[in-house]
Amino acid sequence: MLSLLSKGLVVFRKDLRLEFRSLYALNAIGLFAVTTITAVSFSLGPVRLEPNILAALFWVVIFFSAMSGLAHVFIREEEQDTGDMLRLVFPPNAVLVGKWLFNIVLLGGLCLLIIPLFVIMLGAEVGNWPAMLAMTASGVFAMATVSTVIAAIIALSGSRGALFAVMTFPVALPVLMTAIHGTRVALEGGQLADCGNDLKVLFSFTIVIMTVGFLLFETIWRK
Amino acid sequence: MRNGMWWKSFLAVWMSVVIWAAFYYAPRAKALGETTRVLFFHVPCAWVATLSFIVAAIASILYLRNARPQYDWVAYASSHLGLLFTVLASVTGAVWANEIWGDPWNWDPRQTSIFFLMLIYAAYFALRSGIEDPAKQARLAAVYAIIAGVAMPFFMFIVPRIYESLHPDPLINESGKVKMNGKMLQVFLSSMFGFTVLYFWMLRQKIALLRGEFMLMKKLIQEGEAR
Amino acid sequence: MINLAKVLDAVAQADSAVAQMAQPEKVVGENIFVVMAVTLLIWFGILGYLFYVDMKLRKLNDRLAE
Amino acid sequence: MDLHVENLTQRFGFRTVIKETSFVLPAGQSLVITGDNGSGKTTLVRLLCNLLTPTAGTISYRNGKGALEGEDLRGRIGLVGPYLQLYRDLSAIENLAFLARGRGEKPDAQKIRELLEKVGLKGRGKDPLKTYSSGMLQRAKYAAAILHNPDLLILDEPTANLDEAGKEMVLAVVNEQRKKGSLVVATNEAEERTWGEQHVVLA
């Protein structure tokens, strides 16, 4: 278990280093988010959006940004034929741990960009910051988990990302619905306790998907 | 094929009786009027769609434990039927909702759930169509079916908390009591049974088709290799 | 994308929709044609599917028998 | 580490690539796999490396204590093949350090430097692999394959992309490996067929 985690960290650090050299995924998801928010802000002009619309928009941006970049971490291994090297040297679940951590960091970093943009460009007023941050963090955690597992299937199926959004959406729908609900509560000024149920759902969902992911990853990963 | 004849004749008689009973024998519920009778066809469709999903998920687990193509045929055929029945259930639901609520689609929890199932089936087929190697296709599709199966209970749990339901609850309400009267219940349960048998008959046919296609491919390729 | 927007929109509209529909109109549900439509849709769907599968199966058996 | 292959069969779809192949390779011996293009050399190599799950039959590695699996096995095999690439955005040193860490070892800078010198990449270790020629890439792959002193070294088309000097390097690696452990070579070159005591011919 410990060796799984430490080897997972090795894969994670390798992916982080590769990402900083090419900046592919960072560019893809960052620019997607900025473009979308700018387009909405531009077309709205001075109009301010209601919390329920803002919450939905927030998660739509995160979802589609994730879809544009999170599969890359697996697809690159197959495109550059380095996947076999990983298969040869690393235990399968260590690879999953590494990719999972990488996607969490990537999507978490994206939120650090999106939240200020929402406040500045869309004039979002956050009623309760602790609740907002808790919802964002647990939503991103869940979203990165679902995407990572589906991304592995996508990369190995050889469809190279075209199907990623189509396949992730149904599985991520519980995450989206819960996160939007909780974010709306937070924007309207509800306390952290008011989001308690949503947080519970997100956490249990993440844990269940991750468990299934660990059980099945070897069947996906072996060719 | 004699076995098949037995299935066919049983289904023909049983479903004819169910249709007759739905229109002439079953009484109407107060709030729903004549459209009560929709229930005897629409609800079994939704049930069969759910049943297909469960069968596909179980067959997928079996396939990953033991990679026999038969399990994959069951999963694939069942998903195919699931897609058909989710479409039927949602279309007929929309026709009925248009009459009774004045709006064909309003994201009622049950509409949402059936829509969710439809999306999963669609994604499942999209995934399969992109992979050429049959073993790989079966394996990855099975993994996806299982992940979707795991997400399903969450979905069922979350949706009613977010959307209010207008959907009539004729069979089981919150206190767990059956609200249908005796005659309605008889027809309803007979129809459910008939549709379930119909599902297994259709599944059988589709599996026979998949087996035939498998045999044909095998034959063609062996002929090609022999040359 | 459109469907997602609808799902999200529905969250926003759920409350108002419930308020509107809480009072049922006077005469609903007496339209027997709706029942006909539903029944026929289902049977045509199922039969169409079965005929399609049957046809393909017959063709396949012919080819295998060759 | 002995290699036992029993009734190995591999099918892709309906095509049978490897059909009921059996052989035993005792520790310290070398095996040459030959066969026409498309006869399944690469498939057999990938099966031996545990990169593919066989349709039927078994591949087992045994030493005195019993069958080796998973973690125990991963550290004992080295592979060079045209479908196995290193990270193009990382330097040779970074690639080798990554692989060493993946096997649970601390990367030894001194050892890595010596290894790069041995395969003829002296002075280029810090450059990213995308600046390498195809011959240099092949050399880097050899460094990656022998980094952990594998019990079994598997070479698929060992001298592809290499010039005369490169072939000499490969020969040195092969001779050293034959003294220390087992070797499997998949090739059609006449010269390389002499590298093994045992032969498997795939049809």
SSE blueprint:
The complex is a heterotetramer of chains A (223), B (227), C (66) and D (203).
Chain A: H1 2-22, H2 24-44, H3 51-69, H4 72-79, H5 83-89, H6 92-121, H7 129-157, H8 164-187, H9 196-221
Helix pairs in contact in A: 1-6, 2-3, 2-6, 3-6, 3-7, 3-8, 4-7, 6-7, 7-8, 7-9, 8-9
Chain B: H1 2-25, H2 39-65, H3 69-100, H4 109-129, H5 134-162, H6 182-226
Helix pairs in contact in B: 1-6, 2-3, 2-5, 2-6, 3-4, 3-6, 4-5
Chain D: E1 2-12, E2 15-25, E3 30-35, H1 41-48, E4 56-63, E5 66-68, H2 70-74, E6 77-80, H3 92-102, H4 109-118, H5 134-146, E7 152-156, H6 164-180, E8 182-186, E9 198-202
Parallel strand pairs in D: 3-8, 3-9, 6-7, 7-8
Antiparallel strand pairs in D: 1-2, 1-4, 4-5
Describe the structure.
The complex is a heterotetramer of chains A (about 220), B (about 230), C (about 70) and D (about 200). Chain A has nine helices and no strands. By secondary structure, chain A is an all-alpha fold. In chain A, helix 3 (about 50-70) runs antiparallel to helix 8 and helix 7 packs antiparallel against helix 8 (about 165-185). In chain A, about 55% of the residues are buried. The radius of gyration of chain A is 18 Å and the shape is globular. With about 230 residues, chain B is an all-alpha fold. Chain B has one domain (about 35-225). With about 70 residues, chain C is an all-alpha fold. Chain C has two helices and no strands. Chain C has helices at about 1-20, 30-65. Chains in contact: A-B, A-C, A-D, B-C, B-D. The interface of B and D includes residues 132, 133, 217, 218 and 222 of B.
